[in-house]
Design brief:
By secondary structure, the chain is α/β, with parallel strands linked by helices. The chain has helices at 69-87, 99-105, 114-132, 148-162; strands at 3-5, 8-10, 27-36, 41-51, 57-67, 91-96, 136-141. α1 packs parallel to α3. The longest helix is centred in the middle third of the chain and has 19 residues, at 69-87. One of its GO terms (molecular function) is nucleic acid binding.
């Protein structure tokens, strides 16, 4: 079942229906992507949240206005981290096709751009909040071929915004 609600596509029970997620060992696999047409240009983000047991599937997409591709990637990460924080999982595995974002979060690359530094700090804050309550989080770079659905959501956000399709609200 697909239920569009406030920028969210949902296949499965509402997260509130899951009993005590952290204690129950909820594990999330989250694919993220940001897209910008032009750099900067109209940009969107896509986030796919799946539980390992198949009880939860939530897809999000949002138009973020004019931005660079790297800003869109960070905005997708922030949305993913906020959703993870809300769901209180025991384990979160994030997959992105942005090597820059993944290596910056892993501490392998420095963050030099001022706008990205702000987003990076917000991401680290959310990661520390998740870690402080016992959530194990990892982020991994994957090839584009393994991230097509998140890419499609990010591009859907741009397409709908450029076509003037109204949204019934935004999350996060």
């Amino acid at each position: 079942m697909t239920d569009r609600h406030a920028g969210e596509l949902s296949d499965g029970p509402a997260p509130q229906a899951l009993p005590e997620p952290r204690r129950m060992g909820l594990q999330l696999m989250i694919h993220i992507d940001g897209a910008a047409r032009g750099n900067p240009g109209p940009a969107g983000i896509g986030v796919m949240v799946n539980s390992g047991n198949g009880l939860l599937r939530r897809d999000f997409y949002r138009y973020i206005g004019k931005a660079t591709n790297n800003v869109a990637e960070y905005e997708a990460l922030l949305l993913a981290l906020r959703e993870a924080k809300e769901l209180q999982p025991a384990v979160v595995e994030i997959r992105s096709d942005s090597q820059l974002l993944v290596r910056q979060i892993q501490g392998r690359y420095r963050v030099r751009h001022p706008r990205l530094a702000v987003l990076y700090a917000q991401a680290l804050n959310l990661i520390h909040q998740l870690s402080a309550v016992g959530c194990r989080l990892s982020i991994e770079h994957v090839g584009r071929e393994l991230n097509r659905q998140a890419d499609a959501l990010a591009n859907r956000a741009i397409d709908e915004a450029l076509a003037g399709i109204p949204r019934d609200g935004e999350r996060s």
